[in-house]
Amino acid sequence: MKCFYLFKDKSKCRRKAESAPELRDQNKSSNNNNNNPALDRLTKSSGSLPSPKSIPELYKEKEQELRAFTFQELREATNGFNRMLKIGEGGFGSVYKGTIKPLNGQGNPTVVAIKKLNQHSLQGHKQWLAEVQFLGVLSHPHLVKLIGYCSADGERGIQRLLVYEYMPNRSLEDHLFNRAFPVLPWIKRLEIILGAAEGLAYLHDGVEVKVIYRDFKSSNVLLDENFQPKLSDFGLAREGPTGDRTHVSTAVVGTYGYAAPEYVETGHLTVQSDIWTFGVVLYEILTGRRVLERNRPSGEQKLLDWVKQYPADKNRFSMIIDPRLRGDFAPNAAKKIAKLADCCLLKNAKERPTMSQVVERLKQAIQESQASSSSSSANGTSSSHKSNLVKGKSK
Ligand SMILES: Nc1ncnc2c1ncn2[C@@H]1O[C@H](COP(=O)(O)OP(=O)(O)OP(=O)(O)O)[C@@H](O)[C@H]1O
Ligand SMILES: [Mg+2]
Do 195 and 311 share a structural domain? Predict the structure, then answer.
C-alpha cells in the first residue's frame, strides 16, 4: 500500500468506521433513500451553516443519480471477481474489469471498472464513503465518472465496492514509467497534464465548496480511449476551509514524496498543498522519473533534490529531460514547465500559483511546443512532436 499515515489515531478511526453513515441499502427500495437516518444526522450536523452547502448536503440532493448495486450483481459482472479480470491493485483494494446490465434490462451491457475494498482496511470504509459522496456531487470532463456503488453487510463481513466508467488506456504512471508502454510524446504529455490541471482547477474553484484533492499523482490520472485524462480516487479528498478559516486540520495522509512540506509538518491542509503536489508531477513528466527511485545513485534518488542541480536557466537543464524522448521536445516550453513546477514547489504556500494560473501557463507551453514543432518540420530538421500517438495497452 502506497498511502502513509504519519499521524494515526487508531481508536478514532475505529469509532468513525462504526458510526459512519450508511448509504442506500441495496436490499431496500430506492424510495427509502430520503429516509436514511444516518445520512440525515450527518447532514444536520453541518446544516446550521446558511451557505455554502457541504458535500454531504449536496450529495443528498443528487444521490438518486448513483446506482446502488447488489453484491451479487457485481459478482456476476466480474465473473466471481475472476483473477483474469483484475486490472489493478492499490491501497484500497483490487480493481476488476466488469460488465453490467442496464437498469431496465434493455440495451447493451456497459463495460466498467469495479473497485473492491480490501476487507482488512481500517481506513477503507471512510475512504469509500468519501469517494461516493464527492464523486456523487462532482462532475467534470476531467474527473472519472462514478456509476454506482455497493454496500453490503453480510455473513462474510462488510463489502464495499465502487463502480466507475472504464478507462481503457490505464494511468499516466503506466505511460511514463512502465517500459512495456510506448514512449509518451512530448505534446501528449503536456495535453494530459493540462487536462489534469483543469480537473484540479474545477475542484478548487468550480464547485460550491472548495475541494482539496489530496492525492494527486500520476497513478490517479487515468486515460480514456482518446487519451483524455481523468482524475480518480477521491477517498482522501476534503472540503476546503470555509469562512475566515485558512486551512482544515487533519491527520496527514497521502503518498510518500508527493505531500507538501507544510502539510506534513503541521497537518494543516489547504488548496496550496495540491499545487505543491502538482509541481512534483510536472517534474515527473519532464524527467520520466518517479518522485523517489531507490535504485539510483544516492544523489539522484529524490527527484526534487536531483532536479535542483539543473535549473531551467542553465545550459545543463536539458540533462534532466526524459531520455526516452530522444530530444524530441520543445526546449523553451520545457524550461517554462520547469519554472512553473518551481513556482508550484515554493516553500511559502501563499506564493504558489492558483490552479487557473497553472492552466494558463500550460496552454502557453502547448502553443509554444506546437509552433516549434511546425517550424522544425517545415525545415525538415526534426521529427519533433509528430503525433505518433501511442496506442496504449487496452485490457
Ligand atoms: N476506472 C478505471 N478504469 C480502468 N482502470 C482503472 C480504473 N480505476 C483504477 N484502475 C486501474 O487500477 C489501478 C489501481 O488503482 P487504485 O486507485 O486502486 O490504486 P493506485 O492509484 O495505483 O494506488 P493508491 O491506492 O495509492 O491510490 C490503476 O492504476 C488503474 O490501472
Ligand atoms: Mg488510484
Answer: yes
User: Is 16 annotated for ligand binding?
Assistant: no
Question: Taken in order 104, 105, 108, 113, is the CA torsion positive or negative?
Answer: positive
- Quick check: is 25 in a domain? no
215 belongs to the catalytic site: yes
Cα of 118 vs centre of ligand 1, distance in Å, is: 14
pTM of the model: 0.84
Which residues line ligand 1 at a C-beta cut-off of 6 Å?
A: 2-3, 87-92, 95, 113, 115, 144, 164, 166-167, 170-171, 219-220, 222, 232-233, 255
Q: Tell how far the Cα of 318 is from the centroid of ligand 2, in angstroms.
A: 31
User: What are the backbone angles phi and psi of residue 164, rounded to the nearest 5°?
Assistant: -115, 165
Domain holding 158, by residue range, is: 60-166
Asked, for residue 82, whether it belongs to a domain, the answer is: yes
Judgement on whether residues 196 and 92 belong to the same structural domain of the protein: no
Alpha carbons 395 and 388: distance in angstroms, whole number: 21
Where a domain ends, among 119, 135, 166? Answer: 166
What is the spatial distance between Cα 347 and Cα 345, in angstroms, rounded to a whole number?
A: 6
Q: Which of 9, 40, 205, 215 is catalytic?
A: 215
Question: Rg of the chain over CA atoms, in angstroms?
Answer: 22
* Angstrom distance (rounded) from CA 183 to CA 360: 26
Query: Would you say residue 394 lies in a domain?
Result: no
The CATH number of whichever domain residue 368 belongs to comes to 1.10.510.10
Looking at the structure, tell me whether residues 225 and 262 fall in a common domain. Answer: yes
On whether both 174 and 315 belong to a single domain, the answer is yes
DSSP codes, 103-125: TTS-S--EEEEEEEE-TT-TTHH
Report the domain count for the chain.
2
CATH number of 126's domain: 3.30.200.20
pLDDT in tens, the chain (395 residues): 344 433 222 233 333 333 233 455 444 433 333 333 333 333 333 444 456 788 998 898 888 889 999 999 999 999 999 999 999 998 889 999 999 998 887 889 999 999 999 877 767 888 999 999 999 999 999 999 999 999 998 777 889 999 999 999 999 999 999 999 999 999 999 999 999 999 999 999 998 899 999 999 999 999 999 999 999 999 999 988 877 787 888 777 777 789 999 999 999 999 999 999 999 999 999 999 999 999 999 999 999 999 999 999 999 999 999 999 999 999 999 999 999 999 999 999 999 999 999 999 999 999 999 988 777 766 665 544 443 333 333 33
